[in-house]
Amino acid sequence: xxxxxxxxxxxxxxxxxxxxxxxxxxxxxxxxxxxxxxxxxxxxxxxxxxxxxxxxxxxxxxxxxxxxxxxxxxxxxxxxxxxxxxxxxxxxxxxxxxxxxxxxxxxxxxxxxxxxxxxxxxxxxxxxxxxxxxxxxxxxxxxxxxxxxxxxxxxxxxxxxxxxxxxxxxxxxxxxxxxxxxxxxxxxxxxxxxxxxxxxxxxxxxxxxxxxxxxxxxxxxxxxxxxxxxxxxxxxxxxxxxxxxxxxxxxxxxxxxxxxxxxxxxxxxxxxxxxxxxxxxxxxxxxxxxxxxxxxxxxxxxxxxxxxxxxxxxxxxxxxxxxxxxxxxxxxxxxxxxxxxxxxxxxxxxxxxxxxxxxxxxxxxxxxxxxxxxxxxxxxxxxxxxxxxxxxxxxxxxxxxxxxxxxxxxxxxxxxxxxxxxxxxxxxxxxxxxxxxxxxxxxxxxxxxxxxxxx
Length: 455
Prior knowledge:
Rossmann fold; five-stranded mixed β-sheet; 13 strands; single chain
């Protein structure tokens, strides 16, 4: 008889497949069968789709009559569902296992095979239920479940891997400084850094990293689990700022055509106060009859004004009045504790349901107000982080030197500085005199004229 050998296992362990092949070959030789082909599905679960595995190819070959019998270690290696068993029966081939022979061409053989497939399916589901209960318990006590290793952590999912943890911090700090995900990915790849699976970094993978709880614990079934078992890699404040940056609706995050000009959309029309965009010249987006100005005139003015601001920038103006994020977080925690206390009082009958509900409604409004302030504070803090970091890059030298350094920055960094430092309006007319610049940080430059630094 012509025989197919089929070996399968769920884990990627070559020795497991080797043992299966050895046992099935021995049985085929004992029976005097001719082995036509060996089909191997390594790291393949029989409870999931095997559409791209060797299994459907073997079924098609059996249907074509290329073999008379399929040999496997046991029925579990072949099927784990009645559906797969029916597909195997329809081929008309016999099945031989190391632990016993089945002939699917007879009614008795089909019945026994169906019973065995049902038992295998039952055991699989029962094992899955046990595993789910164990996973639920582990998550409830703050212990991460065994899974694919998360970048930045060792295989125990609790201890930071030093080299990768440094990359995680680098990514969070870069996002907090409002660098684009694309530029961060390019920098990581240029440094030869790779993901946990050895792939190059992409913006989407970095976004996912920042949204993961590297500051509190781990994710289980889409929910963040705070855990004392997992050593945090980034601080809660840095994580909050980075996530606020990603959530900022003014931040351009979609791929496709990108802004290619330094102040496109960041300069305003002196007639309607609408944004001016670059269309051969910078012009009002709302009305082409409104002011326009050529790039060769406007960009040097912008660079010069940024340099003036940076040369005298101290970081103290807005920072002095910044809301304390840690204080808001503490207020939020206290509010949640008060909510929990009211719920306990209600459950223990210490207050009526109506009274408890009224108090909870009040606390809900209070909590939402705190969350709104916290989001605004994080967004403001992220802008300060970006401004301070870029200013540090440029500081040191005269205005002309700083202006030249500014023009050497990547486009995203230039635009971030302009957005944080200046508000520029262009009126009708000719020449540079119609460009009005208001300094948002170096406010003293709005009234006192030039800085006493040699050009």
